[in-house]
Structure formats: structure tokens, C-alpha cells
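Entry 12.
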Amino acid sequence: MGTIISPLFVTWNTRSSRPGRAPHLRGCIGNFSPMPLHEGLAEYALISAFNDSRFRKIEKSELESLECGISLLTDFEDGESYLDWTIGVHGIYITFPHPSLLPSSSEAPSPLSSGGTAPPLKAKHTFSATYLPDVIPDQGWDKIEAVDSAIHKAGWSGRITEDLRRGIKLRRYQSRKCTVGWDDYIRWRKGQELKQ
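Predicted 3D structure (C-alpha cells):
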């Protein structure tokens, strides 16, 4: 069997102590560049556990209440617009320039342009964010709510306008996901010990 190479994300969740309740996000980081599965999994399991700036580091005492999900990202396609994707099927990766660099849909010329064109974009003027395919239905968002949330996740704190949405470059993708809990890991570990 050959080496599996894929973009991937590793997600840590805290399982709810109440039956029927959804788990709570504890960390999620990944990479859109294809990488060998064994390397990417080891690297991003640690990065998402200890370096997700939204959360404190995972501690040993939490392990029994956690589950770990691995999403292998597949089927990347450019969307025709910010609405060209399907909830429950696609994840979204959006990039957009700073709104001051977007052409306005109004008749008035932009104060930034002299000849009707915006200045060239630089990396520091570009925002980006992603949501994995399962996040959007889990949150109960429609497409516009998901895109607007991704805009805020990317770091934009200003007003969201239709011009801003239309300035988005959207890539949609799918994923193959596997989730395991602490009990699954212990069973696997015991099986490995028996083989030795």
C-alpha cells in the first residue's frame, strides 16, 4: 500500500456529558497543502491540541473526555460565486481583499482610484478563512450566514456588504472524516501491545 498524501485537518472536541448533546470544539488546525498522512497527522494533532490560539492548550486530565477527528480534504473546485457550494457536501475556503480595495457597485468612483482600477493587492490586504463541510450544518447556518461568519473568522470586523461578499474568491471542497474517542484509542493501543 502506498503512502497517502492529502491536505488534512485535525479537530479536537470535548464530548458532552449529556446524551444527545453535540461535542464542543476544543481545537482545529490543518493544512491545504498535500502531505503524507503519517507526518501530517502527527504534526497537526499536536498543533491543533497546543497551538490553536482560540483555546488554551489541551491538558492530560482532559484526554478521556476528548474525541479526535481527522478530515482528509478532497475534490477542490473554484466556485463561480460565494454561493456556489452545497451545505452538508462542501467545505468553503474564502479569500477576499480588504474592502477598501474592492470596486464599488455604486455609480460614484472610488476615492482610491483615478482610472477606475484599484491598487494592486498585497498579501497583507488579503483575508482568508475556512469551514470544514460538517461545521456549517452543525451550526445550522444557511449559505449567507456561513459566508458572513467566515468573513468575521478571517479577521474582518467591519460591516459586511454585498460588495464585500461579491469580492470573495471561494474554493469548495469535500472531506472524508474519521473520529475516534479515548476508548477507541485504548482498545487500539492494547491491540498493538498484543501484537508485540
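Annotation: Residues 37-50 form the longest helix (14 residues). The chain is about 25% helix and 30% strand.
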